[in-house]
Amino acid sequence: MSKQLELQEKRFELQMQMHQEQIQKLNSGIPISVSQTAQTSIFEPFNPSQELWKDYSDRFFTFVKANAISEQRMPHVFLSNQSRETFQLIKTAASQMPTPKNINALSWGEIFSIMSTNFSQRTFVVRERHRFYTELKHNATTFSSNEFQSWCKSRGITCISGAPYHPATNGTAERFVQTFKQAMKKSNLSIDLALYEFLLQYRRTPGATGLSPSELLNGRQIRAKIDTFIPHEKEEMKDKLPIPKVYQFVKSDAPCYARNFKVHDERSPKWLPATIIKILGYRHALVRLEKDHRVFKRHFEQLRPRYIKKPDVDFPLYLPGWVSNKPENFDKVPEKEEACSQPVPRRSTRIRRPPAIYQAPTWKRRRRK
User: HEC states along 193-262?
Assistant: First the structure.
């Protein structure tokens, strides 16, 4: 029995040594056979129609940390869990790099850059909004494959190819490519910002029809930095906003009562006298309190009209025996009376009542046949 126990302990120690060696090889990045390692953890593939790449990459990083996967094994784990379309896209992008690479030789940084470029949030929105085309013009032989032709046919896209060695057939597109390259070379910004600025100016530039691409697509001109030099909204138009009839008393410099929200007891008034300083949009206004001149922002529903009583004016009492303070003898320049050729008629200015006209009652009127 003692010999059997010793043999079992030796076998257990050998197995533990083998496991430790395998763990060290995994951490060091030395490739080992699949039979010696455990199977790769399963992670759901990326679906661009249901999830953004940013959210998927965050979930993948969490999965990598939870399973203690090294950075050198991240490309293998990522590619082994992707669909055929994503794998083919990364493989094509790797072959089109300045120095073509095999897909198995890509690092995680290169794979992340490829996925971020092809599945960015802006590209995702554009694809979802303008995903179906009707016509495609090209000369490249890469677009003549049966797979691409069947893909275009399923979406109703007509492929048109020009004559060989004649780039002027698609001269407008070739000229745009030249303009784009010149703009990107002269720009000192990053690639993303330079592309954004170029497309912004291109989409607001009028074409041969006199309208810009943004006006043809959206029916309005998009705003740029140059539009900030011109006021977007005139101050004069703010007083002409369509305000409901219930709040017709809301005008600039108009007296009103503003709601007081600091009511602690019965002595604190619920409504405070104030004056409207400025109207903000369709529902708000700035008011200044009459007591301490504090300025608050209130909704129209938190305002009430206030009417100021006009003070009584005292008129002097003129008596027939009233004596003026002026001296009796003073120089008075006589006024010249202009002779009127025709006398001006004097008519009464009172509102006359219209004459009463006899009207038969409705029950006495005869009906017309």
Answer: HHHHHHHHHHHCCCCCCCCCHHHHHHCCCCCCHHHHHCCCCCHHHHHHCCCCHHHCCCCCCCEEEEECCC
Residues of the chain with CATH 2.30.30.140: 245-305
Other beta carbons within 10 angstroms of residue 326's beta carbon come to: 7
What is the Cα–Cα distance from 42 to 9, expressed in whole angstroms?
35
Tokens of 197: 């600025």
Yes or no: say if 283 and 241 are a contact pair by the CB < 8 Å rule: no
**Alpha carbon of residue 131 to chain centroid:** 22
Q: How far apart are CA 350 and CA 199, in angstroms?
A: 73
Helix axes 191-203, 171-186, angle to 10 degrees: 130
Q: What is the pLDDT of residue 93?
A: 87
Number of CB atoms found within 10 A of residue 277's CB: 14
How many other β-carbons are positioned within 10 Å of the β-carbon of residue 298? 20
User: Which residues of the chain, if any, have pLDDT below 70?
Assistant: 1-5, 7-8, 11-12, 15-16, 19-20, 22-41, 121-142, 231-241, 264-266, 311-341, 362-369
Residue partners of 47: CB distance under 8 A and separation at least 6 = 83
With the C-alpha atoms ordered 199, 205, 208, 212, is the resulting torsion angle positive or negative? positive
Residue 53: other Cβ atoms inside 10 A = 19
Helices (H), 223-282: none
CB of 168 closer than 8 Å to CB of 139: no
Query: How many other C-beta atoms are found inside a 10 Å radius of the C-beta of residue 212?
Result: 19
Residue 135 belongs to what H/E stretch?
Answer: strand 135-138
Query: 3-state class of 234 per DSSP?
Result: coil
Measured distance CA(238)–CA(277) in Å, rounded:
12
pTM attached to this predicted model: 0.37
Sort strands 255-259 and 271-280 into parallel, antiparallel or unpaired.
antiparallel
Q: Residue 203: how many CA atoms within 13 Å on its side-chain side?
A: 17
Q: Which of 259, 308, 253, 301 is nearest to 278 (CA)?
A: 253
Contact 303, 253 (CB under 8 A): no
Return the CATH number of the domain spanning residue range 245-305: 2.30.30.140
Which helix (H) or strand (E) is 277 found in, with range?
strand 271-280
